[in-house]
Fold these 2 entries.
Entry 1:
Amino acid sequence: MKYCANCGNPVALRVPEGDDRQRHVCDHCDTVHYQNPRIITGCLPVYEDRVLLCKRAIEPRYGLWTLPAGFMENGETTEQGALRESWEEARATIDISGLYTLFNLPQINQVYLFYRGHLTNLDFGPGLESLEVELFTEQQIPWDELAFPVVNKTLTHYFSDRRENHYPIRSEDLIRRR
Amino acid sequence: MKYCANCGNPVALRVPEGDDRQRHVCDHCDTVHYQNPRIITGCLPVYEDRVLLCKRAIEPRYGLWTLPAGFMENGETTEQGALRESWEEARATIDISGLYTLFNLPQINQVYLFYRGHLTNLDFGPGLESLEVELFTEQQIPWDELAFPVVNKTLTHYFSDRRENHYPIRSEDLIRRR
């Protein structure tokens, strides 16, 4: 951020009075511009013994497999966002069972939420951001071609929890060593 | 948002190519400015049979009672944010037990997360944003002077769940009728 979104004048990076961290501050109109983490919300769509994955048609991780997920939008709930992304990326309609995993990625200011859900039918297929959409059994999962660690971890938890038929909500911080 | 934070020129509000909702777009430097929901993270601090509440010294809801919570900052995890807010607002140090409630407030683009936790000692007191900090038994809770519905709901769940000594994670959407 270089300019004030409110008045167009240059902003300064400094600690505002009464605050304890640097913010982008406009000394012309006195606006403090806060920046906060974003939520990525998605689904773990299940059909019988298989889970749905999308092969990414966009960067980053073009060509690798992921669960349908994306940035939560203003005006929607986390569940609505997860369903919207499942439709956009996989043309899939899902009946959500509940929240399943939460991941903090503080280095990139993201919080991931994945909901467990069941595909309501087999009418799915690639949306604009996917090359392919497929169902995989545990043995078929392309473990070496998964796009993100949060996808690997969510799938690993799922296949383990499925043996117990018990799906506690998992919360994990993925701290990257620098 | 009226001006581009990247180049300072006026932005337009329109649907970018390949998108399906209005964004603030800069036609000078081609930046699309996305706006996303923010996370408010906080604690439900417990000491024996009492819970800690803060009397707000700031608007909105000046003078009403709340659980320590605030906007999650870049670079931290949801738990770290909850602990930071508990320190800032109540000078309280807390041992977190786990995530407890998640609330969607889509009308104001907020997602609330509250963590259950235990006060590690009784050395607490008002931070800059609080007038008072006190411990309350279930009978003492000032139900008519709580600052936010999410606080009321989290406390109600807690006292109910405490009878069973079982604290499932609660997820709820607070949709305001217009």
Entry 2:
Amino acid sequence: MTPHALDLATALEGDPAAPHRRAHTSDAYWTFIGPFGGSSAATALRAVLEHPSREGDPLALTVNFCAPIASGEFRVAVRLARANRSSQHWLVEFTQGDGAEAVLTASVVTAARRESFSHQFAAMPEIPAWELVPVMPTPSRLSWVSQYEFRFVEGLLALSEAPPDPPRSPRSLLWLRDAPARPLDFVSLAAMSDAFFGRLFQVLGRIPPFGTVSMTTYFHAAADELQRHGSAPLAGLADANVFHRSFGDQTVHLYGAEGRLLATGVQVAYFRA
Amino acid sequence: MTPHALDLATALEGDPAAPHRRAHTSDAYWTFIGPFGGSSAATALRAVLEHPSREGDPLALTVNFCAPIASGEFRVAVRLARANRSSQHWLVEFTQGDGAEAVLTASVVTAARRESFSHQFAAMPEIPAWELVPVMPTPSRLSWVSQYEFRFVEGLLALSEAPPDPPRSPRSLLWLRDAPARPLDFVSLAAMSDAFFGRLFQVLGRIPPFGTVSMTTYFHAAADELQRHGSAPLAGLADANVFHRSFGDQTVHLYGAEGRLLATGVQVAYFRA
């Protein structure tokens, strides 16, 4: 069986227990001037998940995109900063070439997800069944877009000649999954938490220079729960609070079967507009 | 002039350019089993802000609370992981005693906040003027609570004998400021982004074992804008999406004068209930 493109894009070489491993950018997950941030985030997470000392499920993932990763190989340093009885704190750093400076840093918290009081306050927005929503055609020059199936219900990016006045809503609601479909796990969920077009693009109706600087994803389900989800699409809700002084934010909710909130994400991005 | 308690609590010793500095926990900002997370976060941020190589304003702050910090001294390692033309990526790590294991790790992104397109989508909730809202009496046994002036409009913590059924809303709306008042800056804003009681406490009407594991704050204003705010209270909106399998989240909005969104925060916390 051929591995899924996401597994090829996030593959690491070298001893999983070593303090340094190697990985490669993927032409299949390429965006404006570097790899799709979601695949970089997923690679950082995978480095932790594959480490033989890792215990528990990922709970929190923060990725700082320090500089564009050049096409080709990069080094992945993985360090367990703290091990507790039921949680671990991991640090990951990507470097490239001869440089000592990081191109990406990340922190990952893993934890035992024991049964407890359980209550979800966030309600999945009303959304038609995914089979009823047409798939967005993807004639994008950005290869990563073709690695996902997008079915927009609200907030499809629409470019316009004149800037919309007032600015358009940054909110989007859509069904999202890997293309081809792939069973959901933390690697794909991490990548999907970045698989939303820059909110600013739809606000302005154009695509100015833009890049995510930092992103944080919280996982609200355990491994067995993701496994039960299978390869059905997730309902994704993306929005933004503010664009100001060259930076803007994004908030993301990803819902699985029966409206279960599987992950939430935030990010802050640079723009020039 | 006596320094403000927050400045005493977040003070660092040693050469600001050195790779390691020293700091001390503060009895004035103490919570259940360690320092108030907001003061630890603010200390990590201060270590970056005071570094002579630092350029730009803080944009993103992620703090991972790895283990309770014991009362007393701790070491603060500060490293510039990447310097770009208009942004920097910093890593901070607290260690204590003879241990090599971290008690706290943090990442801080700083950036030049240039003029740009500006639009705020998040609207400050309707809230009465702060002078009209009574100050919460603070007979708390947790010292950090006394370092803030809380004026609750909605979602004041109410303990109850029986668990509320259905669970109470995790949402709170309040006016918040340092007590005594202190001019707003990034250090105080970082601390305030953690100055909300565990959302779970009001959901369950009781205080089970609980601790923040990871927290991310985005700053949506530049230094000059915070300075103009002065020492007036901020409107704080705190909420939660989900509690499940021993962990729950929190979202925070902090609004300044004229409803300007100054910071947003998320955190994920452990609980046993």
